[in-house]
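SEQUENCE-TO-STRUCTURE ENTRY
===========================

Subject: a protein chain together with a token-level encoding of how that chain folds.

Sequence line: the amino acid chain in single-letter code, read from start to end.

Question of interest: how does this chain fold, as expressed in backbone structure tokens?
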Amino acid sequence: MKAAVYISGQTPKYLDFAEPIPQNENQILITVKAAAVKNLDKGIVSGHHYSSGGSTEPKVAGVDGVGILANGTRVYGFGASGMIAEKAIIDKNKMVKLPDGIDDITAAALPNAVMGAGAALHFRAKVKNGDVVLINGATGVTGLVAVQIAKHYGAKRVIVTGRNADALNHLLSVGADEAISLKQEDEQIVNKIKDIHKITPIDSVVDYIWGHPAELILSALGGSGGTTHKVKYVTVGGMAGDKIQLSSGILRSSDIEISGSGLGSLDADAMNKLFTELLPEMLQLAADGKLKIDTETANLNDIEAVWHKEIPGGKRLVIVI
């Protein structure tokens, strides 16, 4: 079969690769139709993601995708083998039947963003009706989805931050209530968040970039000795830096609960609900036109040329098989 084949640290290439074979009763062969290229995939291929492992053997890129089972059923699946290929193995317990009305491209692009947004909002932040949610670094694909899901869960206000002015304006058109530019001076950002938190207390922060912007937000949420409003702070990514400096005083002066959302952070029950409840719900929303994601496509044989292509902010690259 043809596949996007890589050796850790190198760009995937369009090559022949042995067709995978199911190893147990929980694995099933799928004919792949589309698979998205995400930061997770790029991190694993580069060897920089914590789940990369140390193997130097050739592998197939891609952790998930959309395709057809032998009986003709269209499904999204999480790969037991690389998914940017003509054939792949998926785990039966990490498979979702696609609803009518959703195309392969959208179905391939959406799930990773749902995992990065829905899992953080639902399982970690536990967003409920009437909450105020701040999404830090919301101008990417997952941030776009997070705004829509937060509103679906009943958030009364969604505040977004980012550096791309056009993307921030787009977020306002899909449900965000207020946008804060991270191009401002630190003091302006901190004061703006303090003002918001004073008038409409923030219930949760979903953070896609961490780094210095996270330091500013945590500083703004810090208390001054009195009773404070509880804030759930969930880190999902580290695009602005993997480490921060956090004063003990901020945590001692405020009711801030910090947690992470990502591979390994969800318990078995949450992982099961991710595939049996959350993903099916969100894919149906997309099929109904109530959850949108922007995409750009390329063919499998162009994988080497497009792997490092600069994709416009807020769009997901999807490889068509």
